[in-house]
Inverse folding.
């Protein structure tokens, strides 16, 4: 891989000097892995953010991930290397909209996907990620649930629970995953007959119906590692495919579509990581009041998972 080794070493030195860690989501530019302490899905990264003793957390991910890290570790400095890294799905629901949604369905518990703002989380009963959504809803042990903001993840949970829970979904979605079409899967299945299709639950329900396995980014990677199969069609963001090709060079990975790239995840480069550490920029702040209210549903999720 071609990357600036000198810059990598400077970042590693700065990390030590400043007692910092770097968390990287597996949709990040691959060069970030050279300096990251932990690379993984959003659940894993939030667990690491909650656990660390470091003074500074540099979050190579999107805004809501850094914000969640700040809520979990309010005494730490949380830095987002590029402030352009938002999440289009998280921006599909705001405080007013979640309040309206709740008012339409009074007394129904709210499960909030972690891909949301702190304000929206503060209105929820419990959070979830793509790796534990089914378990979180099951654990609530209720008949009806409001699920925000991802309609497709909500529908996936409903299908996994055989319709036992009435999941009322908010109409949010991930534009990156919705660019994956059922025809993309069918065409590649025709071409690579032995390949297993591994898909992220943010994909359209018609895409998920065609998949052999549905799971979070980490779950997809683990499935590919454990499977006896040697070829896989990967229906999620390209970063997962890049990492799988490096981790498992003897297996074949086919990316579902070159349209499945999240532009928001690609803003951080090694230079931005270096600047974030050197200038201690751009710090993510959340008010104490909001930390108090958004922490509860996140902690509830982490407790369910442990
Ligand atoms: P994971 O929870 O699988 O990491 O997914 C995060 C995400 O943003 C997917 O689009
Ligand atoms: Fe948000 Fe979709 Fe990008 Fe994930 S892939 S960060 S849900 S826009």
């Amino acid at each position: 891989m071609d990357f600036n080794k000198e810059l990598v070493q400077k970042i590693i030195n700065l990390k030590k000097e400043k007692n910092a860690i770097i968390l990287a989501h597996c949709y990040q530019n691959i060069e970030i892995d050279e300096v990251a302490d932990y690379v993984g899905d959003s659940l894993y990264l939030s667990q690491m953010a909650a656990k660390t003793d470091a003074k500074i957390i540099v979050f190579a991910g999107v805004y809501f991930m850094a914000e969640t890290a700040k809520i979990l570790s309010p005494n730490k400095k949380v830095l987002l290397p590029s402030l352009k890294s938002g999440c289009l799905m998280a921006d599909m629901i705001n405080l007013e909209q979640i309040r309206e949604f709740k008012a339409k369905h009074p007394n129904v518990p709210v499960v909030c996907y972690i891909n949301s703002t702190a304000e929206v989380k503060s209105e929820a009963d419990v959070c979830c990620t793509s790796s534990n959504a089914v378990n979180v809803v099951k654990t609530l042990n209720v008949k009806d649930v409001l699920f925000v903001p991802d309609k497709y993840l909500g529908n996936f949970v409903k299908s996994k629970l055989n319709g036992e829970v009435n999941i009322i979904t908010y109409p949010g979605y991930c534009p990156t995953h919705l660019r994956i079409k059922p025809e993309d899967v069918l065409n590649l299945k025709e071409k690579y007959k032995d390949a297993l299709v591994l898909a992220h639950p943010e994909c359209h329900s018609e895409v998920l119906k065609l998949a052999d396995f549905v799971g979070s980014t980490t779950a997809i990677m683990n499935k590919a590692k454990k499977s006896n199969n040697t070829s896989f069609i990967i229906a999620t963001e390209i970063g997962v495919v890049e990492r799988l090709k490096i981790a498992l060079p003897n297996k074949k990975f086919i990316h579902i579509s070159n349209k499945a790239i999240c532009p928001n995840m690609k803003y951080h480069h090694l230079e931005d990581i270096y600047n974030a550490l050197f200038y201690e920029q751009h710090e993510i702040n959340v008010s104490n009041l909001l930390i108090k209210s958004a922490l509860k549903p996140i902690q509830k999720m982490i407790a369910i998972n442990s």
